[in-house]
């Protein structure tokens, strides 16, 4: 079962097919995205948005939002190298925010699918 944006097979594997655990993991992702997303600021020191990217990356990968995870990974690596221009930071941060928006929007569908089943296998 593969969503275009969220890999449900991965989410299933990470949660052992437990729908309630999957819902909890999705909630953690939303919470982490909200908190760390605020620190994705082009004008902030690159260490700040690299740390935020790192945290979002872990949360994204836990739900199977792999494209978001990859965007975060790229920004984290580059941010940790330092000496990043505002323009480059803007490109990196915009990529994360775009993928984060896609993932957040996809969560509504995933949450609906989970609410309609007792396990992943039933959906």
Automatic annotation (TrEMBL):
Superkingdom to which the source organism belongs: Bacteria
GO molecular function annotations of the record: protein kinase activity
Keywords linked to the UniProt accession: Phosphoprotein, Two-component regulatory system
UniProt GO BP: phosphorelay signal transduction system
Modified residues (Phosphohistidine): 54
Residues forming coiled coils: none
Domain HPt, residue spans: 13-110
Pfam family, any one: Hpt
Family matches, as InterPro entries: HPT_dom_sf, Sig_transdc_His_kin_Hpt_dom
Protein name: Hpt protein
Organism whose genome encodes this protein: Hirschia baltica (strain ATCC 49814 / DSM 5838 / IFAM 1418)
């Amino acid at each position: 079962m593969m969503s275009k944006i969220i890999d449900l097979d991965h989410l299933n594997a990470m949660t052992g097919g437990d729908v309630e655990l999957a819902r909890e993991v999705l909630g953690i992702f939303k919470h982490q995205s909200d908190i760390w997303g605020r620190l994705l600021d082009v004008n902030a020191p690159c260490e700040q948005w690299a740390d935020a990217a790192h945290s979002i990356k872990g949360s994204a990968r836990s739900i199977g939002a792999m494209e978001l995870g990859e965007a975060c990974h790229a920004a984290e690596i580059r941010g940790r190298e330092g000496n990043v221009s505002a323009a480059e930071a803007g490109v990196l941060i915009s990529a994360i925010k775009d993928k984060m928006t896609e993932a957040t929007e996809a969560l509504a569908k995933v949450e609906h699918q989970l609410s309609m089943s007792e396990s992943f296998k039933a959906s």
